[in-house]
Amino acid sequence: MADQKEVARLKELACDMRKKLLYLCGTYEGVVHIGGDLSMTDLLIGLYHHGMNVNPDDIQDPKRDRFILSKGHGAVCMYIAMALRGFFDYDDILKRYGKLDSPYGMHVCKVYLPGAECSTGSLGHGLAVSVGMAFSARQKKQDHRVFCMMGDGETCEGSVWEAANTAGSYKLGNLIGIVDKNSQLMTSFANESMSFEHYPERWEAFGWNAVEIDGHNMNQIIDALDNLPSVTSDKPTVIIANTVKGKGVSFMEGVIGWHAGALSTEDMEKAMAEVDAACEKERSAA
Ligand SMILES: Cc1ncc(C[n+]2csc(CCOP(=O)(O)OP(=O)(O)O)c2C)c(N)n1
């Protein structure tokens, strides 16, 4: 069972991160992909603050775990998770997000952002790049992992399954996929567009371990990350995280219009107060 002090520490970080995302969404002059940012907040906190071996003071450490945000439209969520870990300054993100020549683009740009392993934004490519990185690590006898975060909508892309098949065929146990399964795409609910039946079995058919969790339950996130098979094992693992788009904000949860949007000051304050209240409830229940 996960260490409860650690779980409490990570939950606090997730609360802080949700508020930081909402503040940006209420103060930035354009739209933010807030729905899918809030669905993967707990997962990114679990990864950057517990599960992955990363060091903001040595971003080129060859032993570091590699992270690819394949759902690249959630870039600012990754920037803030990294800022809370000491990679960047949150105020700098607020100042420069989405501006010309900024390292903090709406999508991830490896050329501009120190610590980014891959530029993403065109969906369906991150897993293939991750497979290449994991294969290369195997050949060089390196023992880090490669983590790849995908959206469930993104996995409608055929290229994802070609990459999944390749990873299974080459027995890349050093590769971890995470699917932020919030059951919404951009303009529809997932099951209105594509079937997601037998979803874990699809991964298993390509030679993967599939682990299904509640992607907002920090105990389950930490358990999944703490119990990954060894880097030398012969099966890649996918963590299928059931999440809620817009998690934590009543007027966003499960609402199609909140794939991306901007918040008025009033709604921003309301949303932040809801997050605060939920965090306070969790604290007093602990
Ligand atoms: C190849 C490609 N097609 C279309 C888009 C536009 N697009 C951006 S986000 C999105 C929906 C993705 O859904 P999902 O992967 O489930 O992301 P989430 O709901 O977690 O934000 C689409 C279609 C894109 N970025 N890349």
Structure overview:
The protein is of the alpha/beta class and 286 residues long. The chain has one domain (4-285): Rossmann fold. Helices cover 44% and strands 10% of the residues. The protein has a 5-stranded parallel β-sheet, sandwiched between helices. Helix 9 links the parallel strand 4 and strand 5. The mean pLDDT is 97. Thiamine diphosphate (TPP) is lined by residues 33, 36, 39, 71, 73, 121-124, 151-154, 180, 182, 184-186, 245.
Strand/helix succession: HHEHHHEHEHHEHEH
* Strand order in the largest sheet: 1-2-3-5-4
Helix content: 40-55%
**Ligands bound, unique:** thiamine diphosphate
What is the element layout, followed by pairings?
Layout: H1 4-27, H2 34-51, E1 66-69, H3 75-85, H4 90-96, H5 126-139, E2 146-151, H6 158-169, E3 175-181, H7 190-193, H8 199-205, E4 209-214, H9 218-226, E5 237-242, H10 265-285
Parallel strand pairs: 1-2, 2-3, 3-5, 4-5
Helix pairs in contact: 1-2, 1-3, 1-10, 2-3, 2-9, 5-6
The site of thiamine diphosphate (TPP) has 19 residues, from helix 2.
